Amino acid sequence: MVFSWLNLGIVLALFAGLAFAAGPLFGSILLAPKWRGGDHAMPYECGMTPHGGSWMRFSVNYWIYALIFLAFDVDVLYLFPVAAHYADSEGWLPLVKVTIFIVVLALGIVYFWRKGVFAWPRRISD
Protein backbone atom coordinates (compact mmCIF):
# COMPACT_ATOMS: atom_id res chain seq x y z
CA MET A 1 0.00 0.00 0.00
CA VAL A 2 1.29 3.43 -0.91
CA PHE A 3 0.89 6.09 1.76
CA SER A 4 -0.35 9.29 0.13
CA TRP A 5 -1.30 12.78 1.27
CA LEU A 6 -4.94 11.68 1.33
CA ASN A 7 -4.11 8.95 3.85
CA LEU A 8 -2.20 11.48 5.96
CA GLY A 9 -5.20 13.84 5.89
CA ILE A 10 -7.55 11.05 6.97
CA VAL A 11 -5.27 10.04 9.85
CA LEU A 12 -4.89 13.67 10.97
CA ALA A 13 -8.67 14.18 10.82
CA LEU A 14 -9.14 11.04 12.91
CA PHE A 15 -6.68 12.27 15.55
CA ALA A 16 -8.27 15.74 15.52
CA GLY A 17 -11.71 14.19 16.07
CA LEU A 18 -10.41 12.10 18.95
CA ALA A 19 -8.76 15.17 20.47
CA PHE A 20 -11.98 17.19 20.17
CA ALA A 21 -13.90 14.35 21.84
CA ALA A 22 -11.39 13.62 24.61
CA GLY A 23 -10.28 17.21 25.26
CA PRO A 24 -13.42 18.40 27.07
CA LEU A 25 -13.55 15.19 29.10
CA PHE A 26 -9.99 15.55 30.36
CA GLY A 27 -10.42 19.30 30.75
CA SER A 28 -13.43 18.85 33.01
CA ILE A 29 -11.54 16.34 35.12
CA LEU A 30 -8.61 18.73 35.54
CA LEU A 31 -10.49 22.04 35.87
CA ALA A 32 -13.74 21.13 37.64
CA PRO A 33 -14.04 22.09 41.31
CA LYS A 34 -13.48 19.17 43.63
CA TRP A 35 -15.55 20.45 46.57
CA ARG A 36 -18.52 18.27 47.43
CA GLY A 37 -21.18 18.93 50.01
CA GLY A 38 -23.95 21.32 50.85
CA ASP A 39 -26.50 21.87 48.11
CA HIS A 40 -24.18 20.46 45.43
CA ALA A 41 -25.08 16.91 46.42
CA MET A 42 -28.84 17.54 46.17
CA PRO A 43 -30.77 16.79 42.98
CA TYR A 44 -31.87 19.85 41.04
CA GLU A 45 -35.64 20.25 40.62
CA CYS A 46 -36.34 23.54 38.85
CA GLY A 47 -34.88 25.67 41.65
CA MET A 48 -37.14 24.21 44.31
CA THR A 49 -35.92 22.28 47.32
CA PRO A 50 -36.63 18.62 46.61
CA HIS A 51 -38.70 16.58 49.03
CA GLY A 52 -38.57 12.86 49.55
CA GLY A 53 -35.78 10.57 48.46
CA SER A 54 -33.62 11.12 45.43
CA TRP A 55 -35.08 8.03 43.77
CA MET A 56 -38.70 8.28 42.70
CA ARG A 57 -40.85 5.23 42.21
CA PHE A 58 -42.97 5.19 39.11
CA SER A 59 -45.98 2.98 38.61
CA VAL A 60 -45.70 0.04 36.25
CA ASN A 61 -48.36 1.76 34.13
CA TYR A 62 -45.88 4.51 33.38
CA TRP A 63 -43.33 2.03 32.03
CA ILE A 64 -45.93 0.15 29.97
CA TYR A 65 -47.16 3.44 28.54
CA ALA A 66 -43.57 4.39 27.65
CA LEU A 67 -42.91 1.03 25.95
CA ILE A 68 -46.12 1.27 23.95
CA PHE A 69 -45.16 4.79 22.88
CA LEU A 70 -41.75 3.59 21.71
CA ALA A 71 -43.23 0.65 19.84
CA PHE A 72 -45.78 2.75 17.98
CA ASP A 73 -43.26 5.54 17.41
CA VAL A 74 -40.86 3.12 15.71
CA ASP A 75 -43.69 1.59 13.71
CA VAL A 76 -44.76 4.99 12.44
CA LEU A 77 -41.16 5.66 11.35
CA TYR A 78 -41.60 2.83 8.85
CA LEU A 79 -44.20 4.96 7.09
CA PHE A 80 -41.67 7.63 6.03
CA PRO A 81 -39.74 5.45 3.54
CA VAL A 82 -43.03 4.02 2.30
CA ALA A 83 -44.34 7.53 1.67
CA ALA A 84 -41.13 8.46 -0.15
CA HIS A 85 -41.35 5.38 -2.37
CA TYR A 86 -45.12 5.57 -2.86
CA ALA A 87 -44.88 8.14 -5.67
CA ASP A 88 -42.76 5.75 -7.79
CA SER A 89 -45.02 2.72 -7.34
CA GLU A 90 -47.84 1.64 -9.60
CA GLY A 91 -51.10 -0.14 -8.96
CA TRP A 92 -53.19 -0.80 -5.89
CA LEU A 93 -50.79 -3.17 -4.12
CA PRO A 94 -48.77 -0.48 -2.27
CA LEU A 95 -51.98 1.17 -1.07
CA VAL A 96 -53.27 -2.17 0.20
CA LYS A 97 -49.98 -2.86 2.02
CA VAL A 98 -49.94 0.55 3.72
CA THR A 99 -53.60 0.19 4.65
CA ILE A 100 -52.97 -3.24 6.23
CA PHE A 101 -50.02 -1.79 8.18
CA ILE A 102 -52.10 1.11 9.51
CA VAL A 103 -55.03 -1.17 10.36
CA VAL A 104 -52.71 -3.45 12.37
CA LEU A 105 -51.39 -0.40 14.25
CA ALA A 106 -54.95 0.79 14.89
CA LEU A 107 -55.94 -2.66 16.16
CA GLY A 108 -52.98 -2.57 18.55
CA ILE A 109 -54.13 0.80 19.89
CA VAL A 110 -57.70 -0.45 20.29
CA TYR A 111 -56.43 -3.58 22.07
CA PHE A 112 -54.37 -1.59 24.57
CA TRP A 113 -57.22 0.88 25.02
CA ARG A 114 -59.64 -1.95 25.85
CA LYS A 115 -57.11 -3.43 28.30
CA GLY A 116 -57.08 -0.07 30.13
CA VAL A 117 -53.43 0.73 29.55
CA PHE A 118 -54.16 4.32 28.49
CA ALA A 119 -56.30 5.00 31.56
CA TRP A 120 -53.91 6.65 33.98
CA PRO A 121 -54.78 5.55 37.55
CA ARG A 122 -55.73 8.31 39.97
CA ARG A 123 -53.51 8.66 42.98
CA ILE A 124 -55.34 8.76 46.30
CA SER A 125 -53.81 11.50 48.42
CA ASP A 126 -53.54 11.11 52.16
UniProtKB/TrEMBL annotation:
GO terms for molecular function: NADH dehydrogenase (ubiquinone) activity; quinone binding. It is a multi-pass membrane protein. It catalyses: a quinone + NADH + 5 H(+)(in) = a quinol + NAD(+) + 4 H(+)(out). The keyword Transmembrane helix applies. InterPro entries: NADH_UbQ/plastoQ_OxRdtase_su3, NDAH_ubi_oxred_su3_sf. It comes from the Bacteria. One of its GO terms (cellular component) is plasma membrane. NDH-1 shuttles electrons from NADH, via FMN and iron-sulfur (Fe-S) centers, to quinones in the respiratory chain. PANTHER family: NADH-QUINONE OXIDOREDUCTASE SUBUNIT A, NADH-UBIQUINONE OXIDOREDUCTASE CHAIN 3. This is NADH-quinone oxidoreductase subunit. The lineage of its organism: Bacteria, Pseudomonadati, Thermodesulfobacteriota, Desulfovibrionia, Desulfovibrionales.
